[in-house]
């Protein structure tokens, strides 16, 4: 072999092999990371948006139907429709959502989202979550159905039932203080007294059940239902 052939062979031996391109990698020098570690973040380290799961189209449709239905039900109960939709979205979500994600998914304004999230917090059905290294605020819903039921009933009792009971007691007391034999006043006293008496029975039942552990409610309700049969 002459000197020319020897030099060519030496260059061939010294030339590094071309890097193998991973099918899912655009950079041959940095192969794709092991995907089994992508979804193992703890609550202190939120999953970056780029790594979040791509939603399934059929699942998105099902979620959309439930969110819309929950909003309609909320409206029928005297609760803002958007408030119900936000709660439904958070209840179904496997991980906390930021306000921006909620706004994007429901196509609502920041002011609307902020106001309804604050109301849901006051009801005790969602919680605010902070992650280390992330300045945004995230929100998650209670997912234990009995704790959720307990919080909703307590909230409605505090906001609606208790003020009504205070007003009825005041009306009955004022009617009792009137010094007149007007038969219409007697009818007023009788009917408001009957209404107050019935509602006090309900209040007694609520006061009996609500302070208990929410997880005792299924057993207690079953006992009460059996007692009525």
Helices, by number, come to 8
* Shape verdict: elongated
Question: Structural class of the helix and strand makeup?
Answer: mainly alpha
Number-wise, the strands total 3
* Percent of residues in beta strands: 5-15%
What is the radius of gyration?
32 Å
Please summarize the sheet with the most strands: 3 strands, antiparallel
* CATH top-level class of the domain at 57-141: Mainly Alpha
CATH topology heading of the domain at 57-141: Arc Repressor Mutant, subunit A
Low-confidence stretches: 6-51
What is the first-to-last residue Cα distance? 106 Å
The CATH homologous superfamily of the domain at 57-141 corresponds to Winged helix-like DNA-binding domain superfamily/Winged helix DNA-binding domain
CATH architecture title of the domain at 57-141: Orthogonal Bundle
- How much helical structure, as a percent, in the residues? 55-70%
Strand order of the largest sheet: 1-3-2
What is the helix/strand order? HHHEHHEEHHH
Mean pLDDT across all amino acids:
78
């Amino acid at each position: 072999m002459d000197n020319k052939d020897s030099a060519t062979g030496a260059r061939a031996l010294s030339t590094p092999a071309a890097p193998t391109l991973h099918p899912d990698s655009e950079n041959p020098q940095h192969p794709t990371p092991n995907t089994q570690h992508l979804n193992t973040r703890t609550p202190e380290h939120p999953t970056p948006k780029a790594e979040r799961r791509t939603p399934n189209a059929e699942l998105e449709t099902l979620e959309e139907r439930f969110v819309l239905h929950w909003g309609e039900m909320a409206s029928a109960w005297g609760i803002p429709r958007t408030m119900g939709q936000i709660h439904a979205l958070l209840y179904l979500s496997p991980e906390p959502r930021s306000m921006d994600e909620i706004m994007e998914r429901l196509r609502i304004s920041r002011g609307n989202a902020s106001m309804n999230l604050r109301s849901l917090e006051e009801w005790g059905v969602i919680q605010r979550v902070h992650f280390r290294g992330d300045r945004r605020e995230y929100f998650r819903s209670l997912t234990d159905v009995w704790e959720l039921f307990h919080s909703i009933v307590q909230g409605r009792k505090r906001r609606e039932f208790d003020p009504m009971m205070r007003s009825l007691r005041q009306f009955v007391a004022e009617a009792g203080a009137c010094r007149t034999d007007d038969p219409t006043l007697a009818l007023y006293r009788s009917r408001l007294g009957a209404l107050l008496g019935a509602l006090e029975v309900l209040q007694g039942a609520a006061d009996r059940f609500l302070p208990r552990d929410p997880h005792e409610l299924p057993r207690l309700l079953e006992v009460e239902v059996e007692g009525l049969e």
